Amino acid sequence: MLKSTDLLRSYVLELKRASRAAAVSVFVPASFSGQSSAILIHSDDEAAVPELADPTAAEGWLAQQVERAESRGSDPLRSGAEGGWLLEISAADALFPSSPSPSEDHARKRRRSDDQQELPLTPAAWIGLRFDDPAAGSESFDLHAHGDWRPRLLPLGGVLAWHVQQVVSILADPVTGLPGRTQFQADLIEGFAGAKKTGRPLCLLFINPDDFAGVNERFGRDPSDRIIREIAENLRSTIRSSDIVAKYGGAIYVAVLHDTPLSAAKVVAENVLRSLTERAYLEGAVRLGFSIGVATFDPKSDSGEDSSDLIRRADQALNAAKRSGGGCIMVWEAGSEIEEVGQLDRLAGIFTGQMAKDYRNMVMLWDILYLMAANLTSSELEEQVVDRLQATLKLEQVALFGLAEDGEPMLKSGLARLSVPGGAAGRLALADLNAEELELVSQCCRQGRLIEADLGRAAGTEDGALRYAVPLLAAEQRLGCLYLGGRASSIKLDGSDLIFLQALAAQLAVALDRARLAEQERGRMRTELNELREALQKAKLVYRSPQMSAVLATARRVAPTDATVLITGESGTGKELLARTIHELSPRRKRPLVVVDCAAISSSLIDSELFGHERGAYTGAQARTIGRLTEADGGTVLLDEIGELPLDVQSKLLRFVQEKQLTPVGSTKARGVDVRVIAATNRDLAAEVAAKRFREDLYHRLNVVRLVVPPLRERPQDILYLAEHYISLYSQLYHKSIRGFSREGRETLLAYAWQGNVRELQNRIMQAVILCDRDELTPVELGLSGLGRSAAPESVEPQASGHPMWRMPPAPAVIRPQPPAPESPLGSSDGSAWGRLRGELARLIERAVQGEVPVPYGRWMSDDLVVLADKFSGSVARRAAKIVGLPETTYRRRLQKASEERQAGLAARTETWDQVREVLAELVRGAEEEDQDLLERTERLLLQEIVARFPKSDRTGSALLGVTVPTYRRRTALLKA
């Protein structure tokens, strides 16, 4: 750009000579694309025409001429100054004779319609002439009288204007008009060559306003660009014309000072800082502080340096000035702390001003980014990076080192170019590196900085062996280094290459660190999935039915004791999980829980399995074993399927249960064992005792506390809840995105008679999740399509086995609603709160009449009343207990239980329950501080509605009330009484 404007300046001087004008100015407007800024050049210090006195005046005057383009034509214009004229010249006149005139271009621009694209105007320039001849101010003044220069010089001016505008659009900063980064780096390289040739020093200044981001945020883009231009004008007026002022990027300016030692550069920097900080910008609205970094190149002492080294030093000095608080000058000096400061510009060294090198660097960066996005393993990434570095840089040795657990370097991947002419690169082994090269790598990994050495020259060889170690740093964490090597006569790495390699290594370190973390995460996930698979059979109980709530309530009460527990129930109902729950709730939870499957052990070995045996107790007893009961010492033993024990073993077990002592097989000495016994069976032990297949005394010893786990068909509230739990579990395990059941799948699930109980349900869901390729499970995936459906809950009848079974209905919708019972004085159909509560409850119960699964509305209502009473009483327990009609201790216990269920997510309600809760809140809010017995009154109201619609189905009624069948029968008897 500087050479182009110098050419234009020469044109101005020639134009002044030819036209014999006192002053000549040339104004090249900014391009319409915005890629170049305006250029204004004066012939000398003589007063120019006022229209082109400065860039601001010239732009304002040009805007007026665009508006008058249709009327003024293309003749010379009179200036406001005496003897002044203004001429428009166009590049089109010289390069494209058939093109329209500039005035036609302006008019076409004005007349374009809104739906047309804007047509670019022909590049143009304006010449301002001021003559001292008095006749120049008259209307009859003839420009030709001052020489026949117009036909010769005006077309040349158009060509030069067009050329300058094109060069500026490529090389100049569009906001300031200063040389851009590319032009600056090219000029600096030329300046370096000149400095080396003359032996004169060269200095570089990096200049940056402090906190310019705040100015951008406060004023916006256009005012900020104006400040940028004002700073540029200030610098141009402060720095001597023989030096270079350029825009480096963002709000960073650079000044190249030729033939300037460091002492003189410091004075220049002080003058620049003073000039920039004393001026107010944006018409006095903004004052700025500035930081300046100074670096110098002395050919006598820095002969091995190049332009990229000088840029890096000045950048580091500027960064040091910014870190110290700004508003100061920092000078780069060898051995100072500034040498360790990072660079402010992250692109330094990547864009060097040399097209071939910049292209190579961008390709290498692109390759690294591509590899980072390819989701490679760390070993694949390491190998690919080494291959591409070797192929691009053509080095003899390229290697990547990581760090072992002890911090020592470890070769990950390497390539060595064979010395055979035309030979390909082969893998580099650790043995191929000598002690000096390994020490270079080790030193780089320890210190975390770039290290270079000429090992061959140090050894006395003619051709030096250059070696480079570039650290791999990720967030200050040292991951290893890149190792590069080659002969001094062939290696082509200069200072800018090393800066680039450091930037490349930083990106590579991040990629390697991410790959390493991803592998660790994948390993951790695999471990977790394996643990999840193992834990599937050890999962906690999942339930929401009142039947299971009652079982768990009893289990919680018995768990802290050492009482023997007998758990009965059908296969697959969760007896082992219940036993594990009791163990986890007991003081023995830190000791082992030993599970003995009595049905899986041979009858000939079960005695030895339980009690242990001495060496030689029987044929094959090669060593002494302690037995499963002794393994559980201090903990709990679960005797699963105890009904399968042979009678002879039962007698020994009886003694153990009574006295907590056992005698191993082959021993005569009894030993004490502190263990709690939990037994589980799917048999009716009472019937087994009657059939003489189980010892009666052992039965009574085991049956201290009996827990009966109801089958899944007796607790329909748990079916969907368990199914959704298993969907979530197996979707995560098998990487599926299944959100739930389709409507048909849900209906089929609830209607099916789960003879295999929870185990069957779990296996069905696992199979469905594995086979499902959609986001919902249907009867097809569940494998229940066409299978028998269970009847509604009121079809349940006791069977001979003592367990209720589902009767298959001959046809759907066989249940018909019963006529309603007479209204109770407790509630009516009027608009009172009690009347509205009765109406809402009636609508909810009607759903069960229509065949929907019964919901424990009674338990919901009592829990919500307790919580609402706590809320409206201000958490005063005494007052809340009186409102609901409970003793204070009972109220506190009920409140705690309701709160725990809410926290555990077991207090979910249907949307239709919201209206009931609103009425309950109104009843609690309107209650006075006296005994209201809201619990009893609301339960009585609900019970009336249930009995009216299900007078002969105690099981459905108990499910709706949320209590057991015996409790429901007692309460209905009191209601009828």
Notes on the structure:
The protein is built from 35 helices and 27 strands. With 977 residues, it is an alpha+beta fold. It has 6 domains: 2-171, 2-Layer Sandwich (Beta-Lactamase), CATH 3.30.450; 181-340, Alpha-Beta Plaits; 355-520, 2-Layer Sandwich (Beta-Lactamase); 539-710, Rossmann fold; 713-805, Helicase, Ruva Protein, domain 3, CATH 1.10.8.60; 833-976, no CATH class. The protein has a 6-stranded antiparallel beta sheet with strand order 13-12-11-16-15-14. A 5-stranded antiparallel beta sheet has the order 2-1-5-4-3.
Instruction: Tell me the Rg in angstroms.
Output: 47 Å
CATH topology of the largest domain: Rossmann fold
Quote the beta fraction: 5-15%
Strand order of the main beta sheet, please?
13-12-11-16-15-14
Terminal CA distance: 109 Å
**Any idea how many domains?**
6
